[in-house]
Amino acid sequence: MAYCNHPFDTQTNETIDQVIATVAPKNTCYSNSGSLYSRIAMVIGIHNLGNEQFFEQVLDQLAVFPNGLQHYLRCQDRKRERRRIYKRKFDVKLKQSRQQKQTHEEVFHEHTDNSYGPGVGLTAGSKGNKKK
After folding, report:
1. Residue 58: partners with Cβ closer than 8 Å, 6 or more residues away
2. Distance between CA atoms of 110 and 127, rounded to whole angstroms?
3. CA 85 to chain centre
């Protein structure tokens, strides 16, 4: 129990794991090359520095920086920051909490619903209106 009771937030770890799974899908083998290491390093670099700063540093080392790329990366960083700020608002968290509660109640209702079960289709359509 002491191992599970740490002061760190695991949501960031889960987010990074999801992004790594996006850029390095598990159904493709990257272990025979440096590709997996590069992909994971890219995800961590973007997470820590942001799109613009990360790619600026990498492309400066390569002495290449295409026109318009900096503007695009800056827009991506702004969009990410706006999304992060929006998700931290109290109203948004309250709305998400209500939606999760509603979803949990719907799932519970589906599991306790007795209108469906074995043999339900056998009596469908037999209301005594048979043609002679």
Report:
1. 45
2. 27
3. 17
* Per-residue model confidence as pLDDT tens digits over 37-66: 888 889 999 888 888 888 888 888 888 877
Output 51-57 pairs: Cβ under 8 A, ≥24 positions apart.
Answer: 51/76, 51/77, 51/80, 52/76, 52/77
Distance CA 22, CA 40 (A): 10
The Cα–Cα gap between 46 and 52 comes to 8
Tokens of 37: 């290491």
pTM of the model: 0.53
Q: What are phi and psi of 104, to 5 degrees?
A: -65, -40
Which string of DSSP letters, residue by residue, matches 4-63?
T--SS-SHHHHHHHHHHHHHS-TTS--TTSSHHHHHHHHHHHHHHH-HHHHHHHHHHHTT
pLDDT in tens, 66-108: 778 888 888 988 998 998 888 888 888 888 888 888 787 777 7
The residue ranges of every structural domain in the chain are: 11-91
